[in-house]
């Protein structure tokens, strides 16, 4: 296959659909530049699943990325590859960290949150219900943001008066238009908040996940999380538990208010709210590209090219989810689609532990919102909504919605 020029990914994420189509057209994998770093973007779902489960691919940049030391000091996305938690762990290290964290997100703990989540959504919608008919409200700001912040804040024991600060720094972690200096300052602010939270929970532990993670020991070797692992595990849980869920709520509401036929499918019993959630995760996953993985050995691609040992690999989930080999008419949102397969939560040993919680929050928010506001409509055309300035995070800067027509009584 002739050598292709490197595709420079847009750090502002302004036109992701066109960019993802280009990735698929360039083959199962293609060389891209992500903020100055060269990586293989993998958009073919079969190849991506193969690499995500291969022992010849690692997420540990310190051990398996020759460019790690020279890249981290100057790369705006350094935090994504330099954290010390299960997100970047490989092999037995990953297994140990996942065993320690998994009980905090067990099925029992998640199921027990149903009533709390319903109460949170009901309270948020009650506030919206006081607005005059015809008034426009930003549902990203007033629903998609506050729900996951409240849920993860309660779970992790983050005081209510600190959640706005956490939101600001987490938003910036996902932003890819900031400079290295801006990201370094944001990381310092984030770690200061995490250190303060840990100090508080060591002094006065509670019935929250932070307190649990401080004391939990690995069931096999009896180890606890190191200070760095604890801090970065909290970073992972708070950021992944908030930003990603906000994006899917945002995207689902935008889609349903843009296509009345999909909402009619639910109301007429042709699909469930869970179907809406899964199709949103496929069609508009919370994360478009997830940095980074690394090849431990040379890997031959289906088209004969080679990912060489030490090369970085970018999991391009959004492009893979709409690949024609995975779904027929993949660019179309269809909640009645028989196959629910997608890669929005990853695949293999790094599959997202928080997936059940995210699904529960999103389905609850959608069900209760459309019950309370059956006549809601977008206040602007969906294709005019501004995208978040990120090649990672997949959402809008705002979702303006008229909850009730001005003539409603």
TrEMBL record:
<keyword id="KW-0349">Heme</keyword>
<dbReference type="InterPro" id="IPR017972">
    <property type="entry name" value="Cyt_P450_CS"/>
</dbReference>
<dbReference type="InterPro" id="IPR002397">
    <property type="entry name" value="Cyt_P450_B"/>
</dbReference>
<feature type="region of interest" description="Disordered">
    <location>
        <begin position="1"/>
        <end position="20"/>
    </location>
</feature>
<dbReference type="InterPro" id="IPR001128">
    <property type="entry name" value="Cyt_P450"/>
</dbReference>
<dbReference type="GO" id="GO:0020037">
    <property type="term" value="F:heme binding"/>
</dbReference>
<protein>
    <submittedName>
        <fullName>Cytochrome P450</fullName>
    </submittedName>
</protein>
<keyword id="KW-0408">Iron</keyword>
<keyword id="KW-0560">Oxidoreductase</keyword>
<comment type="similarity">
    <text>Belongs to the cytochrome P450 family.</text>
</comment>
<dbReference type="GO" id="GO:0005506">
    <property type="term" value="F:iron ion binding"/>
</dbReference>
<keyword id="KW-0479">Metal-binding</keyword>
<keyword id="KW-0503">Monooxygenase</keyword>
<dbReference type="InterPro" id="IPR036396">
    <property type="entry name" value="Cyt_P450_sf"/>
</dbReference>
<dbReference type="GO" id="GO:0004497">
    <property type="term" value="F:monooxygenase activity"/>
</dbReference>
<dbReference type="GO" id="GO:0016705">
    <property type="term" value="F:oxidoreductase activity, acting on paired donors, with incorporation or reduction of molecular oxygen"/>
</dbReference>
<dbReference type="Pfam" id="PF00067">
    <property type="entry name" value="p450"/>
</dbReference>
């Amino acid at each position: 296959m002739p050598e292709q020029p490197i595709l420079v990914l847009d750090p502002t994420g302004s036109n992701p659909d066109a960019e993802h189509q280009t990735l698929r057209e360039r083959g199962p994998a293609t060389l891209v530049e992500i903020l100055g770093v060269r990586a293989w973007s993998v958009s073919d779902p079969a190849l991506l699943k193969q690499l995500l489960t291969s022992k010849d691919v690692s997420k540990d940049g310190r051990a398996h990325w020759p460019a790690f030391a020279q890249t981290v000091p100057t790369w705006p996305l350094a935090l994504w590859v330099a954290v010390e938690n299960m997100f970047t762990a490989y092999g037995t290290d990953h297994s140990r960290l996942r065993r320690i964290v998994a009980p905090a997100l067990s099925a029992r703990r998640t199921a027990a949150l149903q009533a709390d989540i319903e109460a949170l959504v009901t309270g948020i919608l009650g506030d919206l219900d006081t607005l005059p008919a015809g008034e426009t409200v930003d549902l990203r700001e007033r629903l998609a943001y506050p729900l996951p912040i409240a849920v993860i804040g309660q779970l992790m024991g983050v005081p209510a008066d600190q959640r706005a600060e956490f939101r600001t720094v987490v938003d910036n972690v996902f932003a890819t238009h900031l400079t290295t200096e801006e990201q370094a300052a944001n990381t310092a602010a984030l770690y200061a908040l995490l250190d303060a939270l840990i100090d508080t929970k060591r002094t006065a532990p509670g019935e929250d996940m932070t307190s649990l993670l401080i004391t939990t020991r690995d069931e096999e070797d009896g180890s606890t999380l190191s200070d760095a692992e604890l801090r970065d595990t909290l970073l992972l849980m708070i950021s992944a538990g908030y930003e990603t869920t906000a994006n899917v709520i945002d995207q689902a509401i935008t889609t349903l208010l843009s296509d009345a036929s999909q909402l009619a499918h639910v109301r007429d019993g042709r699909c469930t709210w869970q179907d809406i959630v899964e199709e949103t995760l496929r069609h508009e996953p919370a994360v478009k590209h997830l940095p980074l993985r690394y090849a431990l050995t040379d890997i031959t691609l289906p088209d004969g090219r080679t990912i060489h040992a030490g090369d970085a690999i970018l999991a391009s989930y959004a492009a893979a989810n709409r690949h024609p080999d995975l779904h027929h008419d993949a660019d179309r949102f269809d909640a009645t689609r028989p196959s629910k397969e997608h890669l929005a939560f990853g695949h293999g040993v790094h599959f997202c532990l928080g997936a059940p919680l995210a699904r529960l929050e999103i389905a609850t928010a959608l069900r209760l919102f459309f019950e309370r506001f059956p006549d809601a409509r977008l206040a602007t055309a969906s294709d005019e909504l501004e995208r978040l300035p990120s090649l990672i995070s997949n959402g809008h800067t705002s979702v303006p919605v008229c909850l009730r027509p001005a003539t409603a009584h």
